[in-house]
Design a protein that fits this description.
It is built from 16 helices and no strands. By secondary structure, it is an all-alpha fold. Bound molecules: the ligand CC(C)=CCC/C(C)=C/CC/C(C)=C/CC/C(C)=C/COC[C@H](O)COP(=O)(O)O, geranylgeranyl diphosphate and magnesium ion. Ligand LD7WCAPV binds next to helix 2, helix 8, helix 10, helix 13 and helix 15. Pathway: Membrane lipid metabolism; glycerophospholipid metabolism. Its EC number is 2.5.1.42.
């Protein structure tokens, strides 16, 4: 069981699932404050506890499926870059990982469809995109990074989609944009870190095409634009002033991540700092909502 949780990268699954719950909560706050009292009393539901649990479960399962199918297709690269992972280390067989991933995708999409049609569509589209990313897109410069950025940011959209008929997706769109930009920046840095294994595998990633230095500048630019945009949830009255204080700490961590890649040419540490900054930004969304 432990090895399958490692294949799923359960820490990422938990982070994504919490992000989706933030989406549910923020969307509920916004749409329930926008409706008229009589509509609120008559038509608008109370906080959807069961749907919130389903949202958490779907994102946990689909994210885990995406990580598992990624390692299934990455077996050759991971033998070079990450030999301790469950498949290259032999702890989980290749076919077992594939069937496990497909089962998680199916379970997640079916549960999503039981929430509403939009949640079902998002889960199905994301599942297909995760498979396409792992099999093909990840070896394509920038498109692969954008796909992972969209997928990560979509956790917020998925939470907002619980209230799609009340404008829930629009309510959380700025969170989607911030998460997408931060993830794209980190994905480019990860490609700089993996450049040797990717080159051996014939992948055409951005750092291989334009060089690691220019890729580092682009990742830093995207990351810094996300930092400059980070007050937007407060400006849009999605978040309280507590968010503004906490996200300033996340912004500082993003700045350190940029320094690690631009100033110290250390993609491994920069990637870790980006992830820490993203985790802290998620905490600021939770505490500031
Ligand atoms: C500027 C600002 C306020 C940005 C917002 C940042 C934010 C809240 C991002 C959300 C992050 C999130 C929902 C992450 C989910 C889990 C995750 C790390 C997904 C992306 O994983 C792909 C990555 O390539 C996996 O690699 P690794 O982390 O090394 O296993
Ligand atoms: C909203 C719903 C239903 C699902 C969202 C699913 C989410 C949040 C996905 C987040 C992004 C994610 C987990 C992508 C999986 C693919 C992946 C591991 C990309 C990075 O892989 P590589 O580029 O191969 O790098 P490493 O394998 O070395 O980490
Ligand atoms: Mg991989």
């Amino acid at each position: 069981m432990q090895t399958y949780l490692k294949l799923m990268r359960s820490g990422n699954c938990l982070m994504a699932a919490i992000a989706a719950l933030v989406g549910v909560f923020i969307a509920y706050n916004i749409v329930s404050s926008n409706v008229s009292p009589d509509f609120y009393a008559v038509a608008f539901p109370t906080v959807p506890i069961l749907d919130s649990f389903k949202v958490f479960l779907v994102v946990f399962l689909v994210t885990g499926a995406g990580n598992a199918i990624n390692d299934y297709f990455d077996i050759d690269i991971d033998r070079i870059n990450k030999p301790d992972r469950p498949i290259p280390s032999g702890k989980i067989g290749l076919k077992a990982a594939l069937y496990f991933s497909l089962a998680l995708f199916a379970a997640g999409s079916i549960i999503a469809a039981s929430i509403n049609i939009i949640c079902g569509v998002i889960a199905l589209v994301n599942s297909l995109l995760l498979i396409y990313y792992a099999s093909t897109l990840k070896r394509t410069a920038l498109l692969g990074n954008i796909a992972v950025g969209y997928l990560t940011g979509s956790a917020f959209l998925f939470g907002g989609a619980v209230f799609f008929e009340y404008g829930g997706i629009k309510a959380v769109f700025v969170l989607f944009v911030l998460a997408t930009m931060a993830t794209i920046a980190r994905e480019i840095v990860k490609d700089i870190e993996d450049i040797e294994g990717d080159r051996e595998d014939g992948a055409q990633t951005l750092p291989i095409i334009i060089g690691p230095k220019k890729a580092a500048y682009l990742a830093s630019l995207i990351g810094l634009v996300a930092v400059l945009a980070s007050p937007l949830p407060y400006i849009q009255s999605l978040m309280t002033v507590r968010y503004l204080i906490l996200v300033a700490v996340a912004d500082l961590l993003f700045a350190v991540a940029v320094y690690e890649i631009l100033g110290k040419n250390n993609p491994a540490r920069s990637s870790k700092m980006f992830k820490m900054a993203m985790a802290f930004a998620l905490i600021s969304f939770i505490a500031g909502a």
